[in-house]
Amino acid sequence: MASTRLFDSYPPFPDDIPIASVPKFSLEKLVSGSDTEAKELFHACRTKGFFLLDLQNDPAGRTLHQDIETLFAITQEVMDLSLEEKTKYHRKPPANLCGYKAMGLIKNDKGQPDRCEFYMVGQDDILGNKPPLASPKPISENREVFSSFVKNASPILMLVLGILDVHLGLPEGTLGSLQRPDKPSGTIVRMIRYPPKSHNDSGSALINHTDHGSITMLCTILGGLQILPPGAARDEANWQYVKPEPNCVIINLGDALVEWTAGILRSNEHRVTSPPGKQAEHVRHSLAYLVRPEHGTPMKRLRGGYIPSAAEDGKEDSSLNAEEWEMKRINDLKYGVDVIKSGGGRELNMATTKVH
Asked: Which of 77, 99, 196, 203 is most enclosed, with most CB atoms within 10 A?
């Protein structure tokens, strides 16, 4: 989320390009208990996996807005550091996924080096669940800002998960209990920078993927995020831009929610390319809060509600916990296993027994 003032400092988003139909919901209405808003949100989470959340007119939303604008300035400060300074904090996957990733280390859809750099700070680090890693001054001297952001963003995402609980027929707090902020997890805050478009650019800036966590909050001003509409083939012509809006964050669901709900909730394939129109001439900064399950959380289907059991589908439940499952997905990608595809969108069967 960013203010109208920040949006007005860049060229406008063009209206002559393919724009995805992404619904927008009001935090104010969700907090007030609007049944209509909640039902439509659940439908979007089942069929699209993406939505905009308008933070205006809600006290918690306004507080988060302030954190986001402060973190945008910190993100720019971090990315403006010299490459020599940033690489002192280079991440070392798979043992440690936090720290700096330089541009060009990942291949895009054309087999070319990616065009994004990012710095990841772990939620465990931010909240003191474990000793903090060494970090550059713009991060180490502003730890209270990161803590404020997480503490203000988390309840809003827990509200969303609580609405999903209700419409899945699950006990209150079920999904939230799988990713408590004070428990060790792979949850991260990611600061991202993409350079202006060059005539030499080929393919996407960040390869098509799904998020393997639970739920993601993205804060961005310029376009560039694209989604593949449900049912569409991976043809270049089918990708559609998500249009950022002032005072809104972009929310998308991850693969863990697909896994736990037997494919009822949707995790949708997306990628990042150069911003459209005149926006492509500018550096694009983004901020993402990627919520992932607690390390020890079982990745088998949830029991109860309207979620069919694995046995009903003739399948076996996963025996992995979240930490093992995440490492498996990272290794699958490393060795070329095709796990990059949308999942979920299954029809909700209200006749499914609520006890398995």
From this structure: 99
- Measured N-to-C along each axis, helices 143-168 and 59-79 cross at an angle, to the nearest 10 degrees, of 130
Which residues are registered as beta bridge partners of 253? 215
Sequence-ordered list of residues with C-beta below 8 angstroms from that of 314, at least 6 positions apart, any chain: none
Integer Cα distance of 355 and 327 in angstroms: 31
Residues sharing a CB contact under 8 Å with residue 53, sequence separation 6 or more, in sequence order = 24, 25, 26, 27, 156, 160, 248, 249, 250, 251
Q: What is the pLDDT of residues 117-153, one digit of tens each?
A: 999 999 999 999 999 999 999 999 999 999 999 999 9
SS3 115: coil
Q: Looking at this protein, which amino acid is placed at residue 281?
A: E
Q: Determine the Cα–Cα distance for residues 50 and 20; give it in Å rounded to an integer.
A: 10
Query: What six digits make up the tokens of 118?
Result: 């990012």
pLDDT tens-digit readout, 97-112: 899 999 887 777 777 8
Report CA Rg, the chain.
19
Q: Which amino acid belongs to residue 111?
A: G
Q: Do residues 89 and 81 touch, judged by C-beta distance below 8 A?
A: no
Q: Do 90 and 57 form a contact (C-beta atoms < 8 A)?
A: no
DSSP class of residue 300 equals S
Q: Is 345 left (phi over 0), alpha (psi -120 to 50) or beta?
A: left
Q: Which amino acid is at 217?
A: M
Q: 0.85 cut: is pTM over it?
A: yes
The rounded distance, in Å, linking the Cα atoms of 356 and 353 is 7
Least Cα distance to 136 among 78, 63, 62, 208 occurs for 78
What tokens does 6 get? 């920040």
Is the Cβ–Cβ distance between 182 and 154 less than 8 Å? no
